Automatic annotation (TrEMBL):
Its EC number is 5.2.1.8. One of its GO terms (cellular component) is endoplasmic reticulum. PROSITE patterns: EF_HAND_1, EF_HAND_2, FKBP_PPIASE. Residues 196-229 form the EF-hand domain. GO terms for molecular function: calcium ion binding; peptidyl-prolyl cis-trans isomerase activity. InterPro entries: EF-hand-dom_pair, EF_Hand_1_Ca_BS, EF_hand_dom, PPIase_dom_sf, PPIase_FKBP, PPIase_FKBP_dom. Residues 60-152 form the PPIase FKBP-type domain. The lineage of its organism: Eukaryota, Metazoa, Chordata, Craniata, Vertebrata. It comes from the Eukaryota. Keywords: Calcium, Endoplasmic reticulum, Glycoprotein, Isomerase, Metal-binding, Repeat, Rotamase, Signal. This is peptidylprolyl isomerase. The gene is Fkbp7. It is an enzyme of class 5 (isomerase). It comes from Ceyx cyanopectus.
Length: 229
């Protein structure tokens, strides 16, 4: 859907319905570091800054925001979050590809109550292919007006990692993930076939254990470069 300007598919519903954001984050493939940088940059204009600007958003935080999107070429509006989902602000994790790269950049170091107007070049939006479903043509420069409401700890935060890492060895074993799954299944109370546990466990390690050593290291789990574990 156009609501969060997605970049990758969500986890399958039959496996993840009703589970927490932390588990959904493990089921989703982490954003990988990209080689090289674009010569183009996001231009940011702060329209309103609250007297108390804390906490400031960082990669991995869970944000709640409204935003309107416009085509720079003619000023036409292609998206308004207030007309979606009964007007509720959007929730998404910052910096992991749930929104276009330009928005991930534009909403860093932003505080609750802050408003920004940002200009995003095509290379940090939809590039040469455009986004036909969202009525965005190829090579389109985009303008977003953003109002941020909340900044919360995200599902791949240090706190989330430590919640699963029971023995505090800075890596997640299959046993630790398995126990976490059992706790989540018990908490959400849905009846699942026992095979679902094994399927989800395998999926988590397939997507997160990049060196295939049987553990999910802090580096493999924690896609947020500025967190310290």
């Amino acid at each position: 859907p156009a609501g969060t300007v997605p970049r990758r598919r969500p986890p399958r519903r039959d496996m993840s319905c009703g589970l927490t954001l932390l588990l959904l984050a493990l089921l989703a493939a982490p954003a990988q570091a990209e080689g090289g940088t674009s010569a183009e940059e996001v231009k940011i204009e702060v329209l309103h800054l609250p007297e108390t600007c804390s906490p400031k958003s960082k990669k991995g935080d869970l944000l709640n925001a409204h935003y309107d999107g416009f085509l720079a070429s003619d000023g036409s509006k292609f998206y308004c979050s207030r007309t979606q989902n009964e007007g509720h602000p959007k929730w998404f994790v910052l910096g992991v590809g749930q929104v276009i790269k330009g928005l991930d950049i534009a909403m860093m170091n932003m505080c609750p109550g802050e408003k920004r107007k940002v200009i995003i070049p095509p290379s940090l939006a939809y590039g040469q292919q455009g986004y036909a479903q969202g009525k965005i043509p190829p090579n389109a420069t985009l303008i977003f007006e953003i109002e941020l409401y909340a900044v919360n700890k995200g599902p791949r935060s240090v706190e989330a990692f430590n919640q699963i890492d029971k023995d505090s060895d800075k890596k997640l074993s299959q046993l630790e993930i398995s126990e976490y799954l059992k706790e989540e299944f018990a908490r959400d109370g849905k009846n699942r076939h026992p095979s679902v546990h094994d399927e989800i466990l395998a999926d988590i390690f397939k997507k997160n254990d990049h060196d295939r050593d049987g553990f999910i290291s802090a580096k493999e789990y924690n896609v947020y470069q500025h967190d310290e574990l």
